[in-house]
Structures
1.
Amino acid sequence: MARITVEDCVIRIPNRFKLVLLASQRGRDISAGAPLSVERDNDKNPVVALREIAEETIDIDGLQQSLIHGLQRHVEKDEPEEDELDLLSTEQELTAASPDGAIAEGKAFIAQEPAAEILAGKPEESPKEEVEAETGGTPGEEADGPAKPGEE
């Protein structure tokens, strides 16, 4: 039986510290029941792990990912991109501004002006003109006197 040495493995993984971490992770995987890619030959798990690394019978990148996952204490959340944040804020503004929360309830948002008028380039009314059109007078002027509670 040929003994495995660190020099056999350093050819595959030049950094000795990384080699130790990966071999120990593979040894833990073997202890947990992972299938062996070389014959055991009455060797212990760390020796089998080193032999697998030296003979390149295991995926080093996959082993490294499982090592990182095992050592990770804080899992990073997928933060939304800047474009997604803009879209979310616009969606929230629309929900807050929609009549009766129509967007929040999943109902379609209906434009106040017909699309043909918007596409035709109808000039927008100024806020003063909108108030006059709604109240029948100028801003600050009450059309029919003070409104009664419950009336608009």
2.
Amino acid sequence: MDAKFYTDRPLGLSGTNLLLALGVGLGSTAFLIDWLTGRALNNLSLALPLLLSAVATGALGFWAVPLLRRLKMGQVIREDGPQAHLQKAGTPTMGGIFFVPTAVAIALVLTGFAPSTIAVSALTIAYAAIGWLDDWQILRRKSNKGISPRTKLALQIGFGALFARG
């Protein structure tokens, strides 16, 4: 009996399975590190902010993703690219607009607005702004071309240098 391979379905994990695998993997790793270092669910815990951020982002996602769809903030896919990519057309982009501020706010609150957390949060917001600018250019131009890789790298280096200097 010959084995038949069906190519009409994309290979790999589905989005839901990938989300579950990532959540279980990251959650387990955070809890393991907390347990090994004796920081389980205290103010130095890795798992607590991860868990809070996941729940808050998931809750915001139920509101934000439909809003992004209504605002037509969907992926633009090249017609000449792989046919499997065409199924991503219209998938909301700019997801960082709701999960980055959530994670930053939780980090700031849990650390009592520690100066080092404020600095890392500022860098995170700056890098998120670069991503937003890239996504905005893609949507504005209705093309898959955002800001140029050179511009993106220059912005990242500039913000990184400001962070390292401070």
3.
Amino acid sequence: MAKEPESLVLSLLGEMRAEIGHIDETLQAVRLTVAGHDLRFDALDEKFDMIREGTVSAIGFAANASRAHVDLHKEIAELRRRVEKLEQAP
């Protein structure tokens, strides 16, 4: 019995299957890398939120302190005016 030549179609399908296996491995590596990046971005988002909240709180405290400082100066000025008025009274 004579040997039949290897089918060209089967040969090409085998090569394609090998290439698909390589592509699957590469795709899996990309998916793992993306998952790692997602975790890092989530961590950065949390840090950003903490920094933003801290900044807003600090600005709020500073604004309140500034307003209290101005109010205190107004009250002192009013008391000085009243004292000067009392000192000038006969």
